[in-house]
Design brief:
The chain is mainly alpha-helical and 313 residues long. The protein is built from 13 helices and no strands. The chain is globular and about 50 Å long. It starts with a helix and ends with a helix. The mean pLDDT is 87.
Length: 313
């Protein structure tokens, strides 16, 4: 498992960097400016991400055939909340200046692209499609945290107080709408004439998101890396959380598929969506966020094979 996961993790990371390199090049050649990145961020949050979430739930969520489906969103809910609790306590203890940004990069992980690629490339035979659907369910739990608590942490300049309105945004609306349609039995009434455009727009979410992130990295100052803060985030994200998941799975006997997906999600680097949210809400800590995203994605090429190898044993 470790050799296969190393190849898969390496391929996933290279593909992510290649997509981001396009946005990086456009900004460096001044073909795309900060205003353009803001527009791409708006498009991601208000159009492509909602369509992606809606299509994935409609296409892969089937409560009749997915036993205990409600347990899979709990994987990413528990990982995100554990990371937030740990980072919050450390931020208070050490008096972090960019407390909310640091909590976000320490808690929220890349729950979608790399886990899905890992599942599709591992030799799992007939279980591949089943696992793919379950990973989609875990992403729902992640999105629930990211587009509520994550947005609140990053957008504190514009949403300083906690209120119900702060947790209402297009990705969450699309998520609850898709869940309602499936659970109420209206999924089959959606015509292909409607769902095909939704799928096409949703499929562009990763590409547009990576263009934005690549552009954000081009505007990030890497000569002054905040090693103290970023080092702590890397430790939480790539070492402590996967170690906790590994110990938990050694002590508690859980269903093998659930445990396998938990281990994959626990190994993931910082969420790339945080960069898009930070640009959209003009967060002043974008250097910290983008530097952490970049470095955790570089280093996870080593930590993912290590922890999946330990789990495989």
């Amino acid at each position: 498992m470790s050799s296969i996961s190393f190849q898969t993790a390496f391929i996933a990371i290279v593909q992510i960097f290649l997509l981001g390199a396009v946005g990086f090049f456009l900004v460096r050649r001044r073909l795309l400016d900060e205003g353009g990145l803001k527009t791409l961020s708006w498009l991601s949050i208000n159009v492509t991400f909602p369509f992606f979430i809606f299509n994935q739930i409609i296409s892969h969520f089937n409560p009749a055939s997915q036993a205990h489906w409600w347990a899979y969103p709990l994987i990413n809910l528990s990982l995100a909340l554990s990371g937030l609790l740990m980072a919050g306590l450390l931020a208070i203890l050490f008096g972090k200046k960019q407390r909310r940004e640091w909590m976000a990069v320490s808690a929220f992980h890349n729950a979608g692209y790399i886990p899905l690629l890992l599942v599709t490339m591992l030799p799992l035979g007939e279980k591949t499609q089943q696992l793919y659907a379950y990973v989609i369910l875990t992403i729902i739990g992640f999105d629930l945290c990211l587009w509520s608590l994550g947005v609140w942490l990053i957008a504190y300049r514009k949403k300083a107080k906690i209120s119900i309105g702060n947790f209402i945004n297009p990705p969450l609306i699309s998520m609850f709408a898709a869940f309602a349609l499936v659970l109420l039995g209206f999924k089959g009434f959606l015509p292909q004439l409607v769902m095909q455009p939704v799928k096409i727009i949703g499929d562009s979410a990763l590409a547009i998101g990576m263009l934005t992130i690549g552009g954000n990295l081009a505007l990030t100052h890497f000569l002054k890396i905040q090693w103290k803060d970023i080092g702590g985030a890397i430790l939480i994200k790539l070492v402590i959380l996967p170690t906790m998941a590994l110990v938990f799975l050694r002590l508690v006997h859980v269903e093998s598929v659930w445990g396998f997906i938990l281990m994959i999600q626990a190994c993931m680097p910082t969420s790339i969506s945080l960069s898009i949210i930070a640009r959209y809400y003009d967060n002043p800590g974008q250097n910290l966020i983008n530097q952490t995203i970049f470095l955790t994605h570089v280093l996870c090429g080593l930590t993912i094979p290590l922890f999946l190898g330990l789990y495989g044993q």
